[in-house]
Design a protein that fits this description.
single chain, 9 helices, mainly alpha
Length: about 240
Amino acid sequence: MLSFKRWSVDSLLRLLLKLFLTLGLLGVAAAAGERFWTTAPEETRQFWLSLSAGMAMQVSSLVLVALFLRENALDWRDAFGLTTQRAGWMVGLGVAAAGVVFGAALVLISGSRWLMELVHLTPQAQSTVEALRDTSDWTRQFAIGVTTVLLAPVFEEVLFRGLLYPAVKQAGLPRTALWGTALLFAASHLNLLTFVPLVFFAVVLTLLYERTDNLLAPIAAHAAFNLTNFLWVLCGGATR
């Protein structure tokens, strides 16, 4: 059972506002970079500016979360259950869950693709998947790997499962917390083809957090799932 989270609603709302402002500022910076960085081809500029903005968002968000925890006199263990105790078990549980979800994702992706084609919509892979497929440059592949396997799982789990889910649940809306954050998580990836699989994945991640009261389990599951997808795409597969 997930433990009670001792932070104020006002401080959480301020944190979310700071995250939105950071996203906006990074978007402006990326647009400025696109305009003034003229020494490289357009495709190269777009790739590195987009990737850099994403990485900067993830890192700066974790810094803002650290300040948020300090404001509420909490540490990462108090807030998210992050501890080295039974860490191996948590990681193993997360990896096992990722394996199950990956198999289910293959089925759900196929179903989503069939439905989209049935209503005359063109299935489109996520932008990171397309970028990974379209390049043989190991530096780009490495940069995408760092973002998707290391940074994104931590950032997204802290935001969706660590902060938003318990906040809504503690407001007396447990079902809204589960499904609302799952839908928001899926929608944040801006891809219709992967929407249903990502909703399913988000629900599994939330249940992992509920069962373990340790965010390490869903972080491990998320990282393992993204790593599996990363390797799958490199080998010619297409799940995301």
